[in-house]
């Protein structure tokens, strides 16, 4: 029995930490670091809670032999934005607070996803239910209504004719729309992947609704990382070189290269960032103001602190607007379906 349990446990071993556990893992790692534990001992302790994790000893040995914490977490399946933040933290030596900040950001993103899913899952269920009801009407109810009209020698009402046409074309419409959306998404994704990171995110930042999120998110990441690196003593050129050297986010690597080239041509930081469509207007104004008074790194730091809160507030407004619109459209559709069922019955009663 014991051997069987070991075989079963071994067959279910995984090489990464589940996404839902990653924020807690980072938060606990931060607490252990603040209490004086070295990174290797901290990881060894936390790995006890993930007995199915493969290559635990190898990961710890790599860390002891010079592997960075960002590389280790990347091997454990952490997202690239989290690894990039910890990579920068390794450059200025403040791993402890960076771990807790990254855990907070990951938790925030997870909460946003949960809110969006919670808002959309019930309307999606109602849409599927409406499609099912439409199919039932098309296959069973409307043909019997037609037979009933013919049996009593009465002409079909205009409502029955319109409803019959509508519910016959509705399934075809949904199938064609689904195929079109799938094909468009596939072609759009393939086209984006062929472009450079700068061009790719330029396109994504111009999308309605989603572009707002991308701009605020990249503005938050850039202002936070750039401010922290500059306040740690790096020059502006060294900060950009650190962006170029990091292996986790191709967009920030290309931003570092682009800004370096523009600054070498004599452009100001503000005019250089005007050419990058990934940042909010607020960040551009703050950059202009900070560059004029010589407090650019401080003002970027202040902006990064309230940018995430502003993003959450505006995302909440979008979510609160989206759900009533979906419910209103579904309500109109459901009322229409009831009218299609009831009005012909009333017409028949009048002819009897």
Automatic annotation (TrEMBL):
Keywords (A to Z) from UniProt: Cell membrane, Membrane, Transmembrane, Transmembrane helix
Transmembrane parts of this sequence: 116-141, 173-193, 325-346
Localisation: Cell membrane
Entry-linked InterPro entries: GspF/PilC, T2SS_GspF_dom, T2SS_GspF_sf, T4P_ComGB
Domain Type II secretion system protein GspF: 25-143, 222-344
GO CC terms: plasma membrane
A Pfam cross-reference name: T2SSF
Membrane topology: Multi-pass membrane protein
Entry keyword Cell membrane: yes
Keyword Ion transport part of the UniProt annotation: no
Sequence similarity: Belongs to the GSP F family.
Record NCBIfam families: T4P_ComGB
Protein name per UniProt: Type II secretion system F family protein
